[in-house]
non-specific serine/threonine protein kinase
Amino acid sequence: MSSSSSMLQNCKRLLSISLCVIIIAVGVKVDASGAAADQFVYSGFAGANVTLDGAAVVTPSGLLELTNGTLRQKAHAIHPAPLRFRNGTPETARSFSASFVFGILCPDTDACGHGIVLFVAPGSYDLSAAFPSQYIGLVNGTTNGDAGDHLFGVELDTDQNNEFRDIDGNHVGVDVNSLESVSSATAGYYDDRGGGGAFRNLTLASGEAMRVWVDYDGEEKRIDVTMAPLRMAKPSKPLISTAYDLSSVLTDVARVGFSSATGSFNSRHYVLGWSFAMDGPAPAIDISKLPKLPRFGPKHRARLAEIVPPVATAGLILSVGAIVVLLVRRRLRYSEVQEDWEVEFGPHRFSYKDLFNATEGFKNKNLLGVGGFGRVYKGVLPGSKMEIAVKKVSHDSKQGMKEFIAEVVSIGRLQHRNLVQLLGYCRRKGELLLVYEYMSNGSLDKHLYGGSDKPILDWDQRFKIIKGIAAGLLYLHEEWEKVIIHRDIKASNVLLDNDVDGRLGDFGLARLYDHGANPHTTHVVGTIGYLAPELGRTSKATPLTDVFAFGIFVLEVTCGQRPIKQNSNGDQLLLMDWVADHWHKGSLTDTVDARLHGSYNVGEASLALKIGLLCSHPLSGARPSMRQVIKYLNGDMPLPELNPTLQSFESLALMQNEGFDSYIMSYPSSMATMTTMSNLSGKVTTT
Ligand SMILES: Nc1ncnc2c1ncn2[C@@H]1O[C@H](COP(=O)(O)OP(=O)(O)O)[C@@H](O)[C@H]1O
Ligand SMILES: *[C@@H]1O[C@H](CO)[C@@H](O)[C@H](O)[C@H]1NC(C)=O
Ligand SMILES: *[C@@H]1O[C@H](CO)[C@@H](O)[C@H](O)[C@H]1NC(C)=O
Ligand SMILES: *[C@@H]1O[C@H](CO)[C@@H](O)[C@H](O)[C@H]1NC(C)=O
Ligand SMILES: *[C@@H]1O[C@H](CO)[C@@H](O)[C@H](O)[C@H]1NC(C)=O
């Protein structure tokens, strides 16, 4: 304990309260006078001159509370006086240092969101247009990544977001104009004690106060971020040290502040103290003066248990309080949204509590994967012990929800051995949970591109998968009471069951984004590389646009290559053009996956390749129906005459005419499986 804090303790014990008040008041006065220059320090925020907006408040105890546990909140706390961040000729960014003490409380550390950012932004930057959730109240879908933002930030991020390529759900990142960090690290510090410098991790949302130092060196053009538990001195090795010149990022005069937001998780974000200085180290925060963080969650109960026995009467009151806290927590934890019109869909609705328990509270160890629509968790239903996969889809819009749920229910009635059975759903605020049968062998793309740990599927398995998916798609198109268009057929939407049979997943989901969208704006739902050329013109999904995507899928499975590949010069090439080219040269089977080492049925493989080309014909009129495809695959009908030359050259020309060139050709092949989707979901839209 530092001498000043022990002095304060003694003071509390020995002297009259009034004397202590005088000492504290003097401390505050010294702090406040610092703010006049290019530096300030707040050891607690009682009476601090900080501009607040959104959910931010200063509590009576002097805590800066950015969010209070309400979902989808955002908050800002900004130092009121703009500071000069650049000087000299040519103008370069000055050195500056900030330090702060924060605490994040979250009842369930596996489901926290979203974090706190210490930022520097020009006075003209419009924070009111920023979004909560993963945007942390700092940017929106348009401003994220815009060099015109002149934004610098250090994020404490408690949720892993794929969109920003977050490394994990507990990290610190350096952000320049974008929440996709230029550098990031799992939260923690390098421990100086014992001389080892060993890395020790910290849990941002532990409910414990922790300290962060942000230092920019204007001469060396380096950003250091260091963190440590509250009572530890600043570690000598920073957590992040990254070379970056902020001269072109920062404006001459800018504001410094905090931004924070919640999304669909119940989290509270607090700042206890904050200091800042230009051209020098940030003034020391007096830890002894910091307000206390509130407590809740398991730690709260543990502490209560220690206190209860000695103080019997107080104990009784506290335990009643604890029970109330637990009940409230339970309600918050399991709260869901149910509306009158949903009653009719009763049987298909799961309780959130069951899904929560089934997935052990959506623990990361149960995470199966993260797709464009959201995270997918493995679970075991408490009663039946049935294995399930729960997909968490965040939805911001109420619009179209009724139609969509109706559709989910009708989709639940679809049953086919080549479809992933949808078992039901659950709705919470801002979130929809879809419950599927669990597929033990995961998605096909992992087997095709998974690297060395997955055995390569042999040809018989591949051909069986192709036939199975054709059957599943035929069922959707023609064998159900109405035509269902899948809209997003691709290897990652094909799951493999126990028998390594292919099952089509995600059907109907794409429609959610159609219902929610403005009917006057056209947008394409699907995945780059699988989009039929006419979609660029009409945006209207039809069974034949599904057939196109199926064709690409067949080529993908047979060739073991992604729809947009890279040739030897590093140029991008459509897989179908490459196959068509080989066919034209009479070397069609050269395109079959080399990892099969020639052990495949030549007749079946070349049939598959030709069917793939026929289905992905640029002219929709030339594509077969799924019924015909099945006949070709089974050898019940001969393939029609095809002209390889025409196909190859036509596809590119057609696509370019349809306005597809700008993105097909500009996407790196690694992004080829990225799904394009409407703004509603945070996926990319192609308009
Ligand atoms: N029913 C399921 N059974 C097992 N794993 C699944 C299931 N559904 C999805 N997954 C896993 O979760 C990942 C993400 O799923 P998904 O949201 O469908 O991704 P995408 O939107 O990219 O197709 C899949 O790649 C797969 O590994
Ligand atoms: C949290 O803050 C919001 C305003 O941002 C307010 O409406 C709500 O009542 C607060 N909730 C609690 C529990 O204090
Ligand atoms: C807060 O700071 C601003 C800017 O420095 C100043 O104009 C204002 O008077 C201050 N308010 C108080 C109450 O000190
Ligand atoms: C994002 O904010 C900017 C202003 O800062 C605004 O012009 C733009 O429309 C916003 N984008 C969205 C998607 O709301
Ligand atoms: C932190 O480290 C401990 C042990 O070193 C480990 O058990 C724990 O899972 C780690 N936590 C995180 C968030 O990585």
Q: What stands out?
A: The chain is about 25% helix and 25% strand. Residues 340-437 form a domain with the Phosphorylase Kinase; domain 1 fold (CATH 3.30.200.20). Residues 126, 129, 140-143 surround 2-acetamido-2-deoxy-beta-D-glucopyranose (ligand 4) (CB under 6 Å). The two ends are 61 Å apart (CA to CA).
